[in-house]
Predict the structure.
Amino acid sequence: MADTAPTACRRSPLAGAAPRLAAVTRSSKGALRLAELPFLAQVNVRLDAKSPAADAVGPALGLQLPPDPNTVVHAGEVTAVWLGPDEWLVVGRPGTERELEDRIRAAAGDEPVAVTDVSAQRTTLLVGGPRARDLLAHGCALDLHPRAFGPGRCAQTTLARTQVVLVARDETRAGFWVLVRSSFAGYLADWLLDAAVEYV
Amino acid sequence: MLLIPCPWCGPRDEAEFHYGGQAHVPYPENPASLTDEEWARYLFFRDNPKGPFAERWSHAAGCRRWFNAVRDTSTNELLTVYGAGEPRPQPTEPPSRPAPLPSTGGPAVPSSSARPAFEDEAVQAEGGSGGAAPGGVEGAAPLQDGTGRGGGGETPPTRTPTGGRIDRTTPLTFTFDGIRYQGYRGDTLASALLANGVIQAATSIRLGRPRGIFSAGAEEPNAVVQIEAPFPEPMLPATTVELHDGLVATSLPGQGRLATTPDPARYDAVHAHCDVLVVGAGPAGLAAAAAAATSGARVILADDQPEPGGSLLGTGEHLDWVAATRARLDAAPEVRVLPRTTVFGHYDDNHLLAVERRTAHLGADAPQHVSRERVWRIRARRVVLATGAHERSLAFGDNDRPGVMLASAARTYLHRYAVLPGRHAVVFTTNDTAYAAALDLAAAGVTIAAIVDTRPAPGEWAERARSAGIEVLTGHAVTGTAGGARLTAVTAAPYQAVNATADEPEPIAPQREFAADLLLVSGGWNPVAHLFSQAGGRLRHDETLGTFVPDSCGQAVEAAGAANGTADLAAAFAEGAAAGTRAAEAEGYTTRTPMPALPAVTVQPYTPSMHVFTVPTATAAPRFVDLQRDVTVADLTRATGAGLRSVEHTKRYTTAGTANDQGKTGGVLASGVVAELLGVDLSALGLPTFRPPYTPVSFAALAGRDRGALHDPVRTTALHGWHVEHGALFENVGQWKRPWYYPRGGEDLETAVLRECRAAREGVAFMDASTLGKIDVQGPDAALFLDRLYTNMMSSLKVGMIRYGVMCRLDGMVFDDGTVIRLAPDRFLVTTTTGNAAAVLDWMEEWLQTEWPDLRVHCTSVTEHWATVALVGPRSRAVLGSLAPGLAVANDDFPFMAWRETTVAGIGARVCRISFSGELAYEINVSPWQAVALWEALYEAGAPYGITPYGTETMHVLRAEKGYPIVGQDTDGTVTPQDLGMGWAVSKKKPDFIGKRSYARADTVRPDRGHLVAVLTDDPGAVLPEGTHLVADGELPAPPVPMLGHVTSSYRSAALGRTFALALVKGGRDRIGERLYAPVGDRLLPVTVAGPVLYDPEGARRDG
């Protein structure tokens, strides 16, 4: 439905925070890179990992749904994030949610799967730069050391006082995706900006 | 914080989990066949064993999977985890937690038998027998009974011309009690005060006695000061305040003052993880960190001082090795050295909290953007505690005068700060360690009048002292002191004589008096076992040391060096290095060789210590045990005299050990005194429990960033900005900010709400309803699942239609309500109340994962994927129609409780015809990315009709006029749907659903249950306060007054032209028309019970 209207009138949860986030990137001279990645397509997929649907859905997306807990798989512009033993979040380019949903449903056929467009449920924050781990460590109890949380890792956990999906991007320098519920995004942005003060 | 091993995600902090009660209590196959008692047993009764207990947990903040765990309820240890639905495994070994290392055990000093407890101390205490004639004062020259205040110029300089670790090129100016002084970078406030001859630094809390600086570290009981500038801070030990330019402090009468202005500084926290955490950077800690660091293990070394070295800074030994080791650690990539960092708490699974003082030492130069203090939340695989030892005091007469100081502290002031804390000293000891202090001070020019040693034969160290020209009084004790603001004289007498019993009087020996301005005291050493004990470690009484040392601990913790009771320096180095190596290797790392060399330590002579706690006094002079609380031997005597036999009780009775120094110098002493008083062995008596924090931590540091606007997350909808711009006042609903009302031109709540209500009833109004919880339920068994979950039937709902539903708990009490939209045969969208969205999803997942795993259905939260606008009022159809040309809005085309997929204002939308006000109304759902566009289009299209934004208060009034309850306001977990008059929503057809069996319980069919009804005051202008009780009689009988019910909602209604209330009233539906009374203040307001639907009871307005 969202794609029936002109995208010009769309407004992302952190649109108002964009200048402040960009200011951190600038004044930290890249030690931290903060930005909202708005409007990413996000589709929640629930299916039995042992069912034929599991074998069919991956290829339809050009990847394998990650079977290991707390891991992600990238292929092209599609990323599949493990959320649970029968649950994944498929993330793609803005505007592709309908197409992703259709591909998954088509691949699953008559198998019982649940496919839900949740693109606006969460927004995505990029937290990058050499100090990204230090910044997140102010509010995340997980061990983010590369030995424990390197590229390809993800986790659902708590950052500051809100739940997030944390994804380590492929190259270490590319930092993290922090997926946060849209209603909490303003709070989390304020928190990150406050925590970043020391690094700018 | 406990780590709970999620079967999927691995160990996570316990805060990520929800507890689900006892496991393996399945839902009965046929609840209807159970007796009331059997059903009640299932509902309300659970096991409560001591020991292993199988229970359910949900990884709520993670993968949201339910699982089972066996937890030992007596130790809180998680023994195993396994999947939901799996049988409980047979008992096995405890899981992944690192195995504790064996304690390295005993002290490195030869053993000797402990001195037996004094048998008759109790009767001899405080002014008992043994008085002796005073002798002449011995001393090189009579001392002034000084003021204890420096700056007078008559006292010789106390700063030595060379030496120390102060930076003499950086003088600093500070103010104490209004007088300006100078010190140097590297000083503490205490050392700078001593360097300026300021001896009295405080006044005691209860007795108002002058007190001086007693120690050189965190254990300080006396010199607790108020910092006035740059920012007020109460009760900091002067020994831990790093001097900076412009510091202003005042002495305290025991108690400080909180700042009256908000603290402008930043505070924050950091989570850190390591393989090996070493606490303390003294000889053992540095050796441990250096050894572990060679392995590549991740090491954190935390120490409370600005520079590493620990006791070596105070003795001035091996400082080259300290510097070299520090450099090596700084260069190691996986090592983090945290100076100025006090580890103050040791919790489950090696979770330790530390506070780092980052900028306070910079004074006014502290950068604004750096946090002043930082709390480190450290999760360590292994911990090496190298926390050193605190020197212990002795209880003798007037042992509290300014000038009485721990022997090691005086040595520290000399070597580290280049300060002589006095000129004429007496040393009182029971062990070897004070001799080194005496010799060093003598070499620096202090006259040591005598060393008073309780031991009859102190051995080699005494010979060394005598060789240096110091008199050693063996078998003697200090029995009293003289002086005012500063010590002037010390009295000593033979120890056996003063300790003689009444039955066996010793010949009275002459007592000696020495002129002295400094009395160094050493009653032995207490390992700093606080963290070890907090970690669950057991302490053991060491006969040789006469104190308590770490024994064993269930966590992967090891004590090393003086903290382990190892007094010998060479042994402490070796023990630290071995502990560091063991810890790294236990984590799978290989330490590299060659290991960093340990310093060569000269072997020192050793004579066993004597275990002395009290020295009897011939006078009534108080013998202090806890200096900070002014607790004396006499106080403890009263406690044991009152029959107290445990140190936990004497502690609470006397307050000994409860001050903010937590009895670091006096704690073991207090136990020793109580043991003597009770005539029991100290080893049997033990110590009071150590609890975090090790040193006081400010609330600001603990709060960190979680204050002000960031104190609690604020949840906002996509329309929040519009509400703010249009002057909405907000109400907190859970963490959400919801518009409460939109005052215009200075309206108050009442006026604005009457206006908003009128618009909704007479024209058109709209509200942001985006906060309602929304759950997408998909799968072939979705309808079956909802039939089990809701009290009413959902499987019969047609695609395209909507049904209101009530959800109850197993006990039949209302849990949540909302609408259910059937999107497709196998897909529903469920809405929940704003505050219950997460709880309802958790409830659904719990049933699906634990009871009905065979159901092919999945639930996904889409609360924030949709923005929802409620469009309400007789003109709402016109407004919607003007924006949705493709939608047939006529009542027949788009009936009540139907939904349509359409385009509103060019935006893809799902429009539902539902009403929470009784008026014609729609809920328009769009992507939140386009919510502002929709809202502004509605505002514009509705302008000709006077469209009015309304908030939660108006919503509440509108629904209450219709008798619609709000879960959580009109219900409280004890209310059934039938109580609410919603028996129509409870299916009679369904074989079972959650709560069904409970509606047959005797308690739920009582006729006198509370029913939701309306109550109307006789006075149409009186608003009953919510919560008001309702009673039967117009005159209050004598208590107890029978209560018939209470008001749950109360408003002023524009539509009714009067006030009204909803209330839960016993048998209320049978009382309609009855007169009741509402006690408000001191009046009884007459009210009439009415049916709950006051407005449009025939429902004529619903279709517009």
